[in-house]
Write a structure and sequence with these properties.
This protein is an alpha+beta fold. Helix content is 26%, strand content 28%. A 4-stranded antiparallel beta sheet has the order 1-4-5-6, with helices on one face. A 3-stranded antiparallel beta sheet has the order 7-8-9, covered by helices on one side. A hairpin with a 2-residue loop joins β8 and β9.
């Protein structure tokens, strides 16, 4: 007796059958204005070298503001504000999800929550990276989905955006070939 499977290739789901997650990316603290301000501070290279070790104003600021950067990081992970379990949904605790059907901005810790923003692969034709001031130190950048010259969706503060953009382009090609 032959066993039929809904997937001709293991792990590959056509968009017409079901939506499958390709990748999830959590934004870094470079997504917000305070994180970018810290990145600009950290990038200061004025200083001296002692026995080959650079002692710059930027690295001094890293040491002095480490608790603030840690709080910014945790604020992006807490599902609710002001308390972790109680209060309104934290708008900063989002995740960027690339699927075989499109790109979504979701609250991963909320059950059955609708995506905050979403586009399908048919809604864009180009993906670019914009590195805003302060994001280069992390390294991070905004991933912008364009249709022509019109911005359709911006994912702020994507850490190491080059591999994610390449994956978006490959998924876009795979999704548009079947049309």
């Amino acid at each position: 007796m032959a066993v039929t499977t809904p997937q001709p290739i293991a792990g590959v789901t056509p968009a017409s059958v079901a939506e499958a997650t390709v990748a999830n990316v959590w934004p870094s603290i470079a997504a917000g204005p305070l994180g970018r301000a810290l990145g600009r501070l950290y990038g200061w290279r004025l200083g001296v070298r002692i026995r080959g070790v650079p002692l710059t104003i930027g690295w001094l600021m890293v040491v002095l503001t480490a608790p603030l950067a840690g709080l910014l990081f945790l604020a992006r992970k807490a599902p609710r504000k002001p308390l972790v379990l109680f209060g309104p949904v934290n708008p900063d605790a989002v995740c960027y999800r690339l699927t075989n059907r499109g790109v979504q901005v979701v609250w991963p810790l909320e059950r059955n929550a609708a995506p905050a923003a979403a586009i399908t692969h048919a809604d864009y034709d180009d993906v670019r990276i914009e590195v805003l001031p302060g994001q280069a130190w992390y390294p991070a950048g905004d991933v912008v989905f364009l249709h022509g010259e019109t911005e359709r969706l911006r994912l702020a503060g994507v850490p190491r955006p080059d591999p994610f953009v390449e994956l978006c382009r490959k998924t876009h090609v795979a999704a548009t070939i079947g049309r």
